[in-house]
């Protein structure tokens, strides 16, 4: 006899951050890299709000526990990646929620990434100072 737990999965990305998000029926607890959200983001309330946005839009705030593994980038891009992953997992849970999430812009992968440094130059856009003489 197997007791398989119902779970919905979504991968979220932003900049160089990747989040593997698992939604499980529960009370609304968020665990990031095996730590609580308050412990992970500290006093950065704006980032905590970004993570909770998909639940606010779809009115599923206390229905799911979130277990996410995040790596790469900084904490701000990690929060965006988690939001993207949660949105995709909610679509796997109920396809009807897709319309609300799409309208809010949470299913769009933010494609802005760091531009590469060009050879013979100082940076991606920065050039060496021009001297006429």
Tags for this entry?
133 residues, Ribosomal Protein S5, domain 2
Secondary-structure map:
Blueprint: E1 8-14, E2 17-25, E3 30-32, E4 35-36, H1 37-41, H2 45-58, E5 64-71, H3 75-93, H4 98-104
Helix pairs in contact: 2-3
Radius of gyration over alpha carbons? 19 Å
Structural domain tally: 1
Relative strand content? 15-25%
Largest sheet, in brief, is:
5 strands, mixed
- First and last CA, distance: 83 Å
Number of distinct beta strands:
5
Widest sheet: strand order? 1-2-5-3-4
Say what the CATH topology is.
Ribosomal Protein S5, domain 2
Task: Give a brief outline of the structure.
With 133 residues, the protein is an alpha+beta fold.
